[in-house]
């Protein structure tokens, strides 16, 4: 703060120093690179950093890259030196148990809300977070299904055309990230507006005077997104 640098700027400065100074004899530990900025910016930087440390003969190093960008797991399918590992967890009686065991493969889900619960977040906030998550996941699935149907039609129309594996991987990542961002934006707007609908349903409209009804509608309209 005293130097006038944001957390993201500090992260990028440190990452730049690593990329410039790493050698094949280095051990590089990277944790959540790119999470301090917009989704596409951060994902692009994380992707490029991983490729740089893999491909550069001068700076290639043994690297452990922890990330919640699930799209980055695609790199293991096209980079011969990249492999996916996950820290396993299981669910017992409605609660998540972290096993602290490293296994090969990509993680199927995150447990951020469970970590928040363990940290002591109020139950009402956790319940709301789960509600938001369910809506986001449901909306993302709907968007994904629609996009997959459209993509199948486009692939059939373009039969015989070939693309590089890199182009395919980037296209897949862009689709996943874009779908997640669209789902978050649209579903969060829906969540905010749903509260307005709930307030309207709970209102005693029969007992309101014309002036009170007008005031209620004005207040509800101001809350709409």
Mean pLDDT: 80
Strand order of the largest sheet: 1-2
The arrangement of helices and strands along the chain is: HEHEEEHHHH
| Uncertain segments | none
Calculate the terminal CA-CA distance, rounded to whole Å: 34 Å
**What is the CA-based Rg, rounded?**
23 Å
Percent helix range: 55-70%
Overall shape: it is: elongated
Structural class: alpha+beta
How much of the sequence is in beta strands? Answer: 5-15%
- Main sheet record: 2 strands, parallel
> Which quaternary structure do these chains form?
single chain
Put simply, the count of helices is 6
**How many strands?**
4
Q: What does this protein structure show overall?
A:
The structure is a single chain. With 225 residues, the chain is α+β, with helices and mostly antiparallel strands. Helix content is 56%, strand content 12%. It has 6 helices and 4 strands; from the N terminus they run αβαβββαααα. The strands form 2 sheets. It has a two-stranded parallel sheet with strand order 1-2. Strand 3 (85-92) and strand 4 (95-104) form a beta hairpin. Helix 4 (123-157) packs across helix 5. The radius of gyration is 23 Å and the shape is elongated.
Quick recap:
With 225 residues, this protein is α+β, with helices and mostly antiparallel strands. The chain has six helices and four strands, in the order αβαβββαααα.
Question: What's the layout of helices and strands?
Answer:
Blueprint: H1 7-21, E1 27-31, H2 39-55, E2 62-66, E3 85-92, E4 95-104, H3 112-118, H4 123-157, H5 165-202, H6 210-223
Parallel strand pairs: 1-2
Antiparallel strand pairs: 3-4
Helix pairs in contact: 4-5
């Amino acid at each position: 703060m005293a130097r006038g640098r944001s957390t993201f700027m500090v992260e990028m400065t440190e990452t730049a120093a690593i990329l410039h100074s790493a050698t094949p004899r280095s051990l590089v530990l990277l944790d959540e690179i790119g999470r301090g900025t917009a989704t596409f910016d951060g994902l692009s930087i994380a992707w490029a950093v991983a490729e740089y440390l893999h491909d550069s003969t001068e700076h290639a190093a043994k690297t452990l890259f922890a990330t919640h960008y699930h799209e980055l797991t695609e790199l293991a399918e096209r980079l011969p030196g990249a492999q996916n590992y996950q820290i396993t967890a299981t669910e017992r009686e409605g609660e998540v148990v972290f096993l602290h065991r490293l296994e090969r493969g990509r993680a199927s889900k995150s447990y951020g809300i469970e970590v928040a619960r363990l940290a002591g977040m109020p139950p009402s906030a956790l319940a709301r977070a789960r509600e938001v998550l369910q809506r986001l996941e449901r909306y993302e699935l709907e968007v994904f299904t629609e996009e997959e149907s459209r993509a199948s039609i486009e692939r059939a129309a373009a039969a015989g055309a070939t693309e590089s594996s890199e182009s395919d991987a980037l296209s897949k990542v862009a689709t996943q990230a874009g779908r997640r961002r669209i789902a978050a934006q649209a579903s969060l707007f829906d969540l905010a507006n749903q509260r307005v609908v709930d307030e309207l349903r709970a209102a005693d409209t029969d007992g309101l005077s014309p002036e009170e009804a007008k005031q209620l509608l004005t207040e509800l309209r101001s809350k709409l997104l």
